[in-house]
Amino acid sequence: MSRRITIVEVGPRDGLQNEKAILEPAVRADLVRRLETAGARRIEAVSFVHPKYVPQMAGAEEVMADLPHEEGRSRIGLVLNGKGYDRALGTTVDEVNVAMSVTDGFGLKNQGLTVDQQVEMLAGIIAGRANAGSASGAAPSLSATLSCVWGCPFDGEVGVDQVADLVGRIAVLGVEEIALADTIGVGDPWAVTRKVEAARKAAPDATLRLHFHDTRNTGLANAYAGIEAGVSILDASVGGIGGCPFAPGATGNIATEDLVYMLERAGFETGYDLDQLIESARWIGEKIGRPAPSALSRAGGWPRT
Fold first, then answer.
1. Average pLDDT score over residue span 75-102
2. Closest CA to 70 of 31, 96, 40, 98
3. In the 3-class helix/strand/coil scheme, how is the chain assigned residue by residue?
4. Which residues are identified as catalytic?
5. How many whole angstroms separate alpha carbon 104 and alpha carbon 106?
6. How far apart are CA 154 and CA 39, in angstroms?
7. Which pairing describes strands 133-134 and 137-138: parallel, antiparallel, or unpaired?
8. Closest of 256, 177, 156 to residue 212, by C-alpha
9. What is the pLDDT of residues 238-281, one digit of tens each?
10. Tally of CA atoms within 13 A in the half-sphere of 241 that contains its CB
11. Residue (of 41, 36, 107, 118) closest to 85 by Cα position
12. By C-alpha distance, which of 76, 83, 93 is closest to 135?
């Protein structure tokens, strides 16, 4: 199995946003550089949210100013609305990821917007892209992440048709990459298969990406199911740190090093250096004041080198 799997590293954003420790922009930029040294080529570096609500993400512009553009590397900025998108355009981000929700309950808590209002917001961003540039020149590429695809902390279970409907609506707007996120870690491998298949039917021309949390110890199993269903892009967070401050009980993402280990043992290609990833996981654990929860940061890889 020599198929290439792209792992989008989200530790500097999703990983750190739910930690008690608030790291300075220079430290977060250092984390980005360490992860890129370990092999990350797409990395969610910052979030353009109001620091009143997510103080861990304050200083996004400072982080990006410390990360000059480099060919072959893509730094992603997450936005929740048009204001965040405008902030992103003032930096050198290569991609903008628009966070949305498949449920009204989470959308209202996270962004103050219903699903329909989020679609309107996204449509407004896309409509303005023709005349928009960024600090690095052309407008950054655009993707969307749909939260709570496998369950919502406020609205409960989420149906397959509910997900497929929203995927179809945003694909029509021209979004070329759509991420399906298990924000609170309630999915199972069989449900992953069903919703990936439904999303693919709803948006056959879009690229699908998957984002799993390991809240209930199903994260890697869900990643396996997604890969078996044909998805080749997954998010992961170094050390398995992370969570969502707006989703009660949401804990860490699947760990980048754990995912890399599983894939490369099976013969897939990821482009990551496992030893350097483990070193980065242990380093960020020291910075946040607790050991990283990933299995590989404790046990190490195999075979021993």
1. 97
2. 40
3. CCCECEEEECHHHHHCCCCCCCCCHHHHHHHHHHHHHCCCCEEEEEECCCCCCCHHHCCHHHHHHCCCCCCCCEEEEEECCHHHHHHHHCCCCCEEEEEEECCHHHHHHHCCCCHHHHHHHHHHHHHHHHHCEECCEECCEEEEEEECCCCECCCECCCHHHHHHHHHHHHHCCCCEEEEEECCCCCCHHHHHHHHHHHHHHCCCCEEEEEEECCCCCHHHHHHHHHHCCCCEEEEEHHHCCCCCCCCCCCCECEHHHHHHHHHHCCCECCCCHHHHHHHHHHHHHHHCCCCCCHHHHHCCCCCC
4. 244
5. 6
6. 37
7. antiparallel
8. 256
9. 999 987 777 777 778 999 999 999 999 999 999 999 999 999 99
10. 30
11. 118
12. 93
Count of residues in the chain? 305
Residue 210 in tokens: 């998957």
Q: What is the mean pLDDT of residues 201-226?
A: 97
The residue assigned the tokens 């242990």 is 282
- Both tokens of residue 209? 């990406």
How far is 51 from 58, CA to CA, in rounded Å? 5
User: From CA 142, how far away is CA 126, in angstroms rounded?
Assistant: 9
Q: Which two tokens stand for residue 124?
A: 């407004």
The identity of residue 204, as a single letter, is: P
Amino acid 62 reads E
Distance, in Å, from the CA atom of 278 to the CA atom of 272, rounded to the nearest integer, reads 11
Token pair listed for 45? 């570096």
Long-range contacts of range 52-55, CB-CB < 8 Å, 24 or more positions apart? 53/245, 54/17, 54/245, 55/22
In angstroms, rounded to a whole number, what is the distance separating the alpha carbons of residues 287 and 215? 22
